[in-house]
Protein 1
Amino acid sequence: MDKDQIVVIGGGAAGMMAAAAASEGRRRVILLEKNEKLGKKLYITGKGRCNVTNACERDKFFENIVSNPKFLYSAFSIFDNTRLITFLKENGCSLKTERGERVFPLSDHASDVTAAFERLLKKRGVQVQLCSEVQAVEAADGKITGVILGNGSRLPAEKVIVATGGLSYRTTGSTGDGYRMAKELGHTIKECVPALVSLEIEEEWCKKLQGLSLKNVTLVMNCGKKKLYENFGEMLFTHYGVSGPLVLSASSFYGKGKDPSDIWLTVDLKPALSAEQLDRRILRDFEENTNRQFKNALGGLYPAKLISVMIERSGIDPEKKVHEITRQERQRLLELTKAFTMRVRARRGFDEAVITQGGISVKEINPSTMESKLVRGLYFAGEVLDLDALTGGFNLQIAWSTGYLAGNRSAEMGKE
């Protein structure tokens, strides 16, 4: 057996970074990828532009980590967003920072990120084997001995890094292989659910709003009386419910309530206005349309698609003249504007989810090395772990940070 041999399973963000880090010390590294090319999921992240990280400060970064943020302290301190930015630039991938501190390739092409890794891996002599599926990871007497490939052949190794991704976007090869491998080696798998995904709502009127985008609104998600999420931004109505940046982030908290059948979304359509200011605004609009019918007096307040739903939900007769509307009716319209509610039926599935929430329990992983506490020589990185974050480049940074740490420490441990 080649004692210096490190096998990395998975050629996505975490796997490519792990292979690059492991090869820094000129160790023999083999990267196994079951797809026909590396970084397949990267090509569809950020709508094909690849939001590689977020350039925010450390505290802000951890505010955006949903599951097990403390576990990430070591990995992020060793390879944080600033190091990732420097790393990519040094390897020929120019970057730019946009709204919300989101970092993208200057070219807007995800392929530039993968190309940077391909050049580096080739330069460092990493053996990349494409179309190579792993059937199982082997261990004996509590330590790694190698991997079994899909064709039945055995590849010996004393160090194996599992970076196979989660269950989201299965067409990119994320089919949960890593969970199965980890479970076979004794690891606990926390329930895996779709995250950063659209939500289905109960109300039928959402179909009337299909395609409507609401900008500069505040969204609150509640489970009963418990607030699970609140933020300001943009959302989108679909034929089945709601989507867009606000909703995707809110979806990551869907399972954090006690009763998933009692999840409510509340939208403040005019968050910049207090109730008193909004009342004055409605009165002004009504005064300008005093002799018109109610249904024809709302164009200045709401997008055209939203008007019929607002009328229906307000309970005000659409044919009623504006000057006949009572104070109580105006108050109902105001309250509806500040608290436009809808009940969540379910979240959409893995085929639409950006990431997977859940995975290998981090309690069984050493946060300083990413090595398994159960099997020596076994390391994990990326989405396969029970780690996830909100949108904005944070999930990819989790992959880069844990991938680097796993690769770096696996190479160092072999020198002891």
Protein 2
Amino acid sequence: MNRAELAARIDHTILKADATRDAVAKIVDEALRYRCASVCVNGKHVPFVAARLAGSPVLTCAVVGFPLGAMDSRAKAQETAGVVAAGAREVDMVLDVGALKDRDDARVRDDIAAVVAAAGAVPVKVILETCLLTNDEKVRACEASVAAGAAFVKTSTGFSTGGATLDDVRLMRASVGTRCKVKASGGIRDLAAALAMIEAGADRLGLSATVAVLEALRD
């Protein structure tokens, strides 16, 4: 895999609460330089990012229900409609972790489906927050995501007790098969880790250490 091929799998990410306009602009410029898949930001930054990425192949990705996923589905749907109207071309949503643990899989599915409906043609990635789940819960979350029409299942927000692991990526890949894609995110900080996640079955990577990872890969 060369640098361009790896960059095309990366969502270059900045989601910290204290992210300034200048910091977001730096991430956008880096994503443009390396031709990443997307720039992933909180909703308030979507209009700014979408404008700077206009005319490029790099997509604007927005998080929804982030980072807890514990709000009303109508609020998630409204947030989704707002970021899509502002220029988001991918949406990463956090599922209802508490409902999953209550074994209310119908609620989990319907929560995701509400976001998928609000996103329209925009692909939705569902953040499972795997560090909080048992393996059974991870599989059920994958099934609910597929049933609701998600385009990806994603490991982590990066804001909880842990990030992506190879075992979780393998389990998610096995669970969804070819029915949707897998994104690994959270704690992937070097080239070896990034390549291992892809080998384990990840189609996309969420990274904030994008530049360091790509610069470690010689063309």
